[in-house]
Structures are given as C-alpha cells and as structure tokens.
Amino acid sequence: MGFRCGIVGLPNVGKSTLFNALTETQAAQAANYPFCTIEPNVGQVGVPDPRLDKLAAIAGSAKIIPTQLSFVDIAGLVRGASKGEGLGNQFLGNIREVDAIIHVLRCFENDDIQHVDNKIDPIADAETVETELLLSDLESLEKRVPAAQKKATQGDKEAKIAASVLGQALDLLREGKPARLTKPKDEDEERVFNQAQLITAKPVLYVCNVEEEAASEGNAFSARVFEKAAAEGASAVIVSAAIESELTGMEMDDRLVFLEEMGLQEAGLARIIRAGYELLELLTFFTVGPKEARAWTVHKGAKAPEAAGTIHSDMQRGFIRAETIAFDDFVSLNGEAAAKEAGKLRQEGKEYVIHDGDVLHFKFNV
C-alpha cells in the first residue's frame, strides 16, 4: 500500500534539509532562500524494524526487505497561497496527493538563516500554513455544498449524502476548524467525504526542528508546539535536522556513538516513522522464508485478504486462507516448524483481522 507523507511548512524552516537527511540523498537542494524546492522531490525510505532482522536470522533469509515509506518535499508556502500567491496553486495541488502532512516548524534561532517574517514563532508559522489550507477548502466547499443541497431537494440520493457530510465540514471550516474533525455517520458519508479530497481532512504531525543542543529535550519553542498539538488531539515530535544531516553517510556503529554523545536513543527518522504509523493507524506484518524476510504495511482493522492484496492482487482475488504465527511465538520457538509443532500456527479465513507482527503465509488459487 502507499504511505505518502508530504513535508510542508514556511520557507527556510528546514524542510529540504530534513528531507535530505531522511532519505539520505541530496535530491532536494537545501538553500537559504524561499522556493528552493519547486518541483516536489520524492524519496523512498526503508522503515527500520528490528523484528525483521530477528525473523531473517531465524529463517536464514538471504535478503531482508523492509516496508517502504514515501516522503514528498513540497515547495514552501506563503500567505496568500489559497489565492495563488507565490507557488500557492502548485503547493495546494501537491499536498492533495499525499496521505498525511508532516508540518515542519522552525524552533531554533539562527541569524544566518532568513525567516520570511523576520521572527521565530512556530505557532504563528503553523497558523499561517493552516489558514491557507482552511481557506482553500472553504472556497471549494462554498461552491460544492449549495449545489449539492439544491440537487438534494430534487431527490438526488448522492447529493443528499454530500449535502450532509460536506455541509458538516463546511460548518467546521467557517469556525476556523479543520475538516478532519468531521464525523461521517456511515460508510456512504465516509466515501463521499474521502472523495472530496479536502486538504484539512488529512492527519497532521508537527515536527519541531530544534538546534542540536535541544534535540533530546526540546526547547521553549517546541514546548509551545506540543501544547498546541495536545489541544488539537494531534501529534508532535522533536527533531534536529542538523543532527540528521550529520548522521547521513555514517556507518551504523558510528551513528550509535554519535547519537549517544548527543543524548539520543534513536535517529529522528525512527521517531517520525513511529509517529506516522500512529497517525495513519498502520501496522506491520511479515512474510519469511529462505529467500527473503519482508515487512508489509496495512491499516489497522485490515482483514487477511486485504493483507494478501498488498503482496499481489491475485492473492487477494484467489484468497483461500492465511497461515498465521504471532511474532513472539515465531521468535520464542525459533521458527515455523517448532511453532507449528507447538500448535502456534493457526489457519485463518477471510474474516481474520491482521495483528501487528503477524508472520503470514497465504494460500490462494486463481
């Protein structure tokens, strides 16, 4: 399945530097001027998961293939983007195509790096971006909802659904609240709401970009962002893009030593991924064999055929059953054979809901 996170924020907050560090590339030109990122750069990142290494060691897998995330570095936004200012139209178009928004906020002072408003205030920065996203959605729904309401009075069933759920979203936007607070009452409303592709319906993770010295505990700026996130029921993480840049290209042993010296247990990528998984309600399952050990991602609540479909559509179409071993059982019993002998290998059907860490083997026929 796709997992596509758009990195957004005002110009010069560290978006491209963070993107380069996360993807360990120099695909995005990190320069000290607005709009240095014009076309959205996309980087594929393997998700670090120590469970995969354990499974591969037990099974003697020749290859280890982690699940992948996509990070999209999107052009910096300025006031008036909803009216096409700066690169506004392009920014809004690119952000509609992602699954979640990673909102980078500048939480550090540095006189050598220009701020578009000549002041460091991450809350004001966040509100600038959020206002433009709200205005864009508001303009869209103020045209669509009246049209749906008119059709609804003529007996159009689909229009009645749209008038109800999009009308609720419009009310929230008029109150200055994001569309993601909309609560569709059934599957039809959920479908219509998702089809509307509202920008403020996307889940948001605030990333506080701090100076190196504050990478462990944060600072006064990041503390304000965490308060804002808590008030919104959102998530936030602390990252130093400067540290992540220094980690790029280091050998693993050197990375661990460097992180320890900085008072960090893990790199920023791991924190962002973990927060992203929680944000999008994702979980990981595994397939293991002598050729490869591989991690796959599905949404929480996914059933066995859907999980099979992430591997190949034929497996979902011809699904028969799933042979399932919990990760802890696979590891504690040292592999599939012993797990089967101990009665820990289960035969599950189409209604089985995937659990995080499941080791699966699918039976199918097409």
Q: Mind explaining what this structure looks like?
A:
Helix 1 (15-23) runs parallel beside helix 8 (241-247), helix 4 (122-153) runs antiparallel to helix 5 and helix 5 crosses helix 6 (187-195). By secondary structure, the chain is of the alpha/beta class. Strand 8 (282-288) and strand 9 form a beta hairpin. It is 42% helix and 19% strand. The two termini are 21 Å apart.
Describe this structure in a few short sentences.
With 366 residues, the protein is an alpha/beta fold. The chain has helices spanning 15-23, 50-59, 88-96, 122-153, 157-174, 187-195, 220-232, 241-247, 252-261, 268-280, 304-311, 313-317, 327-332, 336-341; strands spanning 4-8, 41-46, 63-65, 68-73, 100-106, 204-209, 235-239, 282-288, 292-299, 319-325, 346-348, 359-364.
Low-confidence stretches: 26-38, 84-88
Summed over residues and divided by their number, the pLDDT gives a mean of: 86
Output the radius of gyration. 23 Å
Number of helices: 14
- The CA-CA distance between the termini, in Å, is 21 Å
User: Percentage of helical residues?
Assistant: 40-55%
**Given the C-alpha coordinates, what overall shape results?**
flat
Query: Structural class, judged by helices and strands?
Result: alpha/beta
Q: How many β-strand runs?
A: 12
Element order, helices and strands? EHEHEEHEHHHEHEHHHEEHHEHHEE
Strand content: 15-25%
The biggest sheet amounts to:
6 strands, mixed
Instruction: Indicate the multimeric state.
Output: single chain
Adjacency order of strands in the biggest sheet: 2-4-1-5-6-7
